[in-house]
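Hi all, posting the design record for the shared folder.

TITLE: backbone redesign
STEP: 1 of 1
STRUCTURE INPUT:
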């Protein structure tokens, strides 16, 4: 998780730092590769799923995970454009997500609500979303590559990769599919709960979001288990 989206576990709650430019695109020149996948293919595994999540750090909305199984020889024309979803513009993410869904051997999404996050905690809820995404694949992977965390309840060979969305093409594609879906959910929530600006900040703790929270108070999709610092907001 980026420092600007940092969540530190403290006294049983997650303290969220306010940040101002959540949608800033940070560009990296080196794209993720198939190197990790090729190594595993050479060991005899055919179907490798990349798994990633979006939405661990926001103050509102669900956590969403994506799982993607790519073919061994996707077209270079789009593959070279893939980056971690945070490093892409919204328009580029949507374009790539459409291609990924069409070209993938299988893809799936898992969504865990803010209510469940409050009950289970964000780490457990993130693992739940990842497990749901694997279940939605429609094809059982033989090996999974997971961004940053292991899935103890998933009885498959797996590897947790720190910054995996910058290293593995499969994980980066999962990140893109999940991000586009969650962004669309937050745009819908913006219509259901007007005044917070969900379509712009996607639930992250921007100054706009905190200011609107102070005026309106929390709505049903705000995470009650997340501490609000010195905002003065009563959950």
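Okay, here is what came back for every position:
SEQUENCE:
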């Amino acid at each position: 998780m980026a420092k600007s989206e940092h969540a530190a576990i403290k006294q049983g709650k997650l303290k969220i730092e306010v940040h101002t430019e959540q949608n800033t695109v940070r560009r990296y020149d080196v794209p993720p590769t198939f190197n990790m996948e090729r190594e595993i293919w050479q060991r005899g595994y055919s179907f490798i799923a990349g798994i990633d999540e979006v939405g661990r750090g926001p103050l509102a909305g669900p956590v969403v995970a994506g799982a993607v199984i790519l073919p061994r020889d996707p077209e270079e024309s789009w593959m070279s454009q893939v980056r971690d979803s945070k490093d892409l513009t919204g328009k580029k993410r949507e374009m790539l997500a459409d291609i990924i869904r069409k070209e993938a051997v299988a893809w799936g999404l898992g969504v865990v609500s803010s209510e469940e996050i409050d009950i289970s905690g964000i780490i457990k809820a993130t693992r739940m979303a990842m497990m749901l995404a694997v279940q939605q694949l429609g094809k059982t992977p033989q090996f999974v590559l997971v961004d940053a965390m292991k899935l103890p309840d998933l009885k498959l060979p797996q590897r947790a990769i720190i910054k995996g969305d910058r290293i593995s093409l499969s994980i980066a594609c999962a990140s893109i599919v999940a991000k586009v879906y969650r962004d669309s959910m937050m745009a819908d929530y913006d219509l259901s709960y007007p005044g917070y600006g969900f379509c712009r900040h996607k639930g992250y703790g921007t100054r706009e979001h905190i200011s609107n929270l102070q005026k309106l108070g929390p709505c049903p999709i705000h995470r009650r288990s997340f501490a609000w610092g010195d905002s003065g907001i009563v959950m």
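COMMENT: Residues 169-192 form the longest helix (24 residues).
Let me know if anyone wants the other runs.
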